[in-house]
Structure formats: C-alpha cells, structure tokens
Amino acid sequence: MTFPVPVLDHVVINVASQLDDASALYRRLGFQLSERGHHTLGSSNHLAIFNENYLELLGFEPGRGDKRKDLWEAPLGLTGLVWKTQSADDEFTHLVQQGLDGEPSAAFHRPVRLPDGQQTEARFKTVRLRPSLIPNGRSFFCQHQTPHAVWQPAWQEHPNGVKNISEFVIVAQDPAGSALVYSRLFGEERFQATHDGALVLKAGKATVRIASEEYARRRFGALPEDYNGTPRMAGLSFLTADLAQVKASLQHGDIPFREEPDAIVVEPERAFNVALRFHR
C-alpha cells in the first residue's frame, strides 16, 4: 500500500468568540497576523504565515456562533492538526481504505486582499479523519488550490523572527495508543520511539510528538488549565532566526516568559491555552 507523506500544513487554535482578544494577544507574542478572513462556511480567522506551514486563530464573529457548531465544542486552544495534500479526493480514498474516513472532501473559500491591494480568494478542499478518532480536536488534509493567496513573502516576516512551526505536541497517557490512528494513516514505520516513551513523526519542517504529561510539563512548564487526562493537543515549538527577537517581542508585548539556555518558553495561560516554545 502507498501511504501519503506527512507534511504539516498548519495548526488551528480554537478561539471561539474571542477573535479580537486572541489576535491582539498573538500580535503581542510577536506574530504578524493576516487581516481577518471570513470563510464561506461561516467561521473567521487570522493567520500567521511561515515558510512551509502556518498558524490559524479560528473563531466566529458575533451572531455567527451557530455556524460550524462542532468546532466550538472543542476546548479553547490547540485543536487542529492539518496535513498538506495535492488531492483531498485521493486522501479520502486512502482514509476509506484504512477505515479512518469521516465525510467526503469539502470545498470552501474566503476573500483575501493581497499585499499589493489586489482582491482574490483563497480556495481549499479539505478531508477530515473521522471525528471520533481525534479526541479534543480535529485532524484533516488541506489542499490549497490557490497557495499564492496564503504564502506571500510580505506575510512571512514576524517581529519575533519565527520561520516555521517545528514541533506539535500531543499529550497522552498512552502515547502508543494515541499514535495508532496516525500510524494507520501514514504507516507505522514513519514513527520513531524515544527514550522517554514518546513517539515522533517527521512532518516536513515540523515533527509531531505524542508524549506523556511528564514530558510536556518538563518541556513547556505547564499544560492547559482544563487538561483532564484525555489526549490533548497542547504545545507548539517554533524555529526562530534569533532568540533576541523573541525576547524583545515578548517584553514589548508585556508577556511573561521563561528563558532557558537554548529556548524561550511561554506557558499556556499566556498564549490562549497553548504552550509555546521558541528555539534556534
């Protein structure tokens, strides 16, 4: 069987009705965010675009909370692990073959104003793994039909110097059990076990790490306040050009942080329920 190659496309942070507060906070964290976008499905977002992947703050504007209700039932914080694909339809066929399928691919778009002022649309096709397989969030493939409407050089420069998401951490009491869905998706040989019991999947410029609570607390200092022991998308690491830029951005934004010899850590209560780690 031919398996898709795992490459992280983007991550989703569920901010529900708090788009204004969340976007202001992530700008204080040193990210350049896109203008607010509005999907044809009813949700709204802000993006922080990097070289290969990006971060999405996803929520809804007043009076639109009845759209895409299933999204807002997830915990606030990191709830979306999204993979690149050239064909959402092909991925759906693969999901069916592996017994991982939910609904067939869906197409949607949002208007975009490019840096030169030109109006265009960002168009996507996505296909989601069966929701019951992904506790406290979603995992899906995203086919960018108009990548130029997302990856613009002017949007890839951030005050904190971030170049890419480098790590996506899922906390689980049973890492092997939580990794099973992704080993069925990409092939078990893609995973590597670490000495501390974590399972790591290389995903382009990023790695996806399924690890214990102990590991996450050691690496990030804390977990989301509402962590209840069930598998949870909990933390992100970022590759930055210069930790001095990160430190200056956080100081300017009045964001408390912890310095380590080779990293700067922001605990989840300071980053909308997501633990953040910046490194060179």
UniProtKB/TrEMBL annotation:
<dbReference type="Pfam" id="PF13468">
    <property type="entry name" value="Glyoxalase_3"/>
</dbReference>
<dbReference type="InterPro" id="IPR025870">
    <property type="entry name" value="Glyoxalase-like_dom"/>
</dbReference>
<protein>
    <submittedName>
        <fullName>VOC family protein</fullName>
    </submittedName>
</protein>
<dbReference type="InterPro" id="IPR029068">
    <property type="entry name" value="Glyas_Bleomycin-R_OHBP_Dase"/>
</dbReference>
<feature type="domain" description="Glyoxalase-like">
    <location>
        <begin position="8"/>
        <end position="185"/>
    </location>
</feature>
